[in-house]
Amino acid sequence: MYALLELPIIYGSGDCLFMFFLFQGNRFRRGLRKFIAFSLSLVISLAAFSEDVAGVSSDMDPGMLADIEAVIRELGLDDPLLDSPEESVADEEPDLGLDNLHENEREILEKKEVMAVQESEGRKIEERKNEVQENAGLEKDVPKVVETPFVPEEKPEPDGKSKKIDLGLTGLDKDLTQKYINDFLGLEGKKYLVKCLENSVPYRPYIIQKIKENNLPLYLQYLPIVESNYKVTAKSRSGATGMWQFMENSMAPLLKKSKWHDDRRDPWKSTDAAMLKLKLNYTMFDDWYLAVVAYNCGAGALQRIMKENPGLDFWGLWDKGVLKGEAMHYIPKLIAVADVVENADYYGLPEVKKAAALIDGKEVEEFDYLTTKAMLTFSQLSQASGVSVSKIKELNPALLSDCTPLGVSYDLRLPKGKSVGVADKLKKKGLALDSTVHKVEKGESLWGISRKYGITVDDLCRANGIKESSILSIGTKLVIPIYK
User: Is 86 a catalytic site residue?
Assistant: First the structure.
């Protein structure tokens, strides 16, 4: 009880003034009012406690008590809202002076403090989310040089200045044709066309010449792009080979094949064969689109389709959906290639125009032909003719090995004027353009065999890589050079 009686003295001491400076702004005023109210009320309560309960007479004058109560009322310190747990300000931090409050008030303010902290953290998290989203949006807008792949240029639009060339092709407005046109206008499509046109330079002048000679549509010069990308050694999964993609069962009558060579790989011979086949197809179907698609799927297959769908032209069959696989794409891709290449100016494709113009003014190349029946290597032929091995390969892609066929007549293609004197130069090295094979029998000698074929022993030895003193075994096969 004596400790309680000493409380007014403690609260009245100068040290208690330190408590006032823990408050700031509005909190200072409310804290001060609370502190005064609490102190004055405590003084009155203790006075009453001393007199009524403990039986101790208070030294405090009753008039002083009345004055204190009047001050409390005048200052509004008896307002119950001062102690209300609902009192809060949204932008203020929770009260930290919990030790001076009653237990129920402490519990309420602790809850309010937790709620305020959670609300503050929630705002921070939300602000962080917004910041991340905004940053993410910025990252999408700003291209990264290293990590982000290169974005190709926009597809060119017609420039409005160049007039589009009318090629007389129907079906350019079809969705599939437009898809191919758009593909060729893109970055990869342009590269593809440029590469194919570059591949075509050695052969396209000859193809155009043959197209004109046979009165075929000029856009057929682009058919090898669809077939093989203008690659003379192309081979499909089904076995179609060469620039014009002939199957073995469609080679006759112009193309031949052996273990030494395959004429489907010869761009000049296969072009002649393709012109003949397309012309025959047109005779059969009386429509160039049908003739071209028959080149792809076979005349017999197309005839069966047309028999089941009488009265329809190519686009009629296409719209009906009876053309399947490559046959459905064949014409749309072909006319798309022709349209884009021929109208490169209109579409704003200078690279394509430049590649297509590589054959401008280029004459159809003329050749010499060296007929051989002996196995001669490209190296031997190069030394005798003065033509590089790479050029011999380029002009003779039908040969499957770097040599001419043995025992088979073959016309080797050489640049114009380069066949002169080749036979004599080969003979000096013991080589001949023609040869045969002799099987050694019992009792034969090198001298006797050479006399039989009208050559010298030295010729026979050089052709077979043996010495005059070599002993022949029965059944040995000797190459017999035939000099003309």
Answer: no
